[in-house]
Amino acid sequence: MRAYLSAFVLQGRIGLRYRIAVAAGLVAQLWFGAITLMAYASVYHHAPDAHAPLTLRQAMTYTWLQQSLFRLLPIGCLPSVGDAARTGAIVYDLLRPVDMWAWWLSSSLAWLVGAAVPRAILLAAIAGPLAALLGLEAWSLAPPVSMTAAILALVSFGLGALISATIVMWWNVLTARTLSPLGANAIAVPLSVLLSGMLLPLPLYPPWAQTLLLLQPFAGITDIPIRLYLGVAIPGGAGTAIVIQIVWLAVLTLFGRAWMRRTVDRLEVQGA
């Protein structure tokens, strides 16, 4: 376990070095969040009789939480894996006396969490208490509906981070297989943004698509935790939502490990 913990800590420290990137990302998420909130306000105010699954305040809180956790989305492979696949340095990982899946997973989780947590804390402070102090309480990040909801959301966010890191592992394996991160990143970005609820909250999609959207793995990254935070009804309740996350985590790990073993057995390395 010491090797995997070291990989996690090392990758986390690398991510924390780029403070300018955190600040730039924070400004970008605040900008896009504000634009999205204005769009929601316009739609809800012009259709006050519409029976939307989310109230305007819930939609705004959903947006702030999504924006704060944007870097938790699996939008590509681990950068170091992409570089190693391109240059041929991936052989060093193959020669390490560790479980390669756990090694890459530790780094992938640290890469996601290390980038997401600082930005999430800063954005939550700005969109929450600071916005309320400035007289923008109606547009601010609302607190969880209850202590129970807060605890469930916290557990669910933890599972969501693990699911996201596991999906990044799939992009890592694809990168190792193709010897380039371009294909994995091209697939990862649209899938993550669309299916996680970043583009539009999943509860606002048409009713016929709700079950399919809830049962796909990207919903477990941020959509399910945010629904628990807001107290929005989920078919089957909070327990079912947590089970969906656990099942996807197990399935992605099981098949991902099998795919990695097959990829490593057939891997041909060329240095750039």
From TrEMBL:
Endpoints of the signal sequence: none
Key words of the record: Membrane, Transmembrane, Transmembrane helix
Lineage top rank: taxon: Bacteria
Ranges that cross the membrane: 20-41, 101-117, 122-142, 148-174, 186-208, 228-256
Name of this protein: ABC transporter permease
Organism (species): Tanticharoenia sakaeratensis NBRC 103193
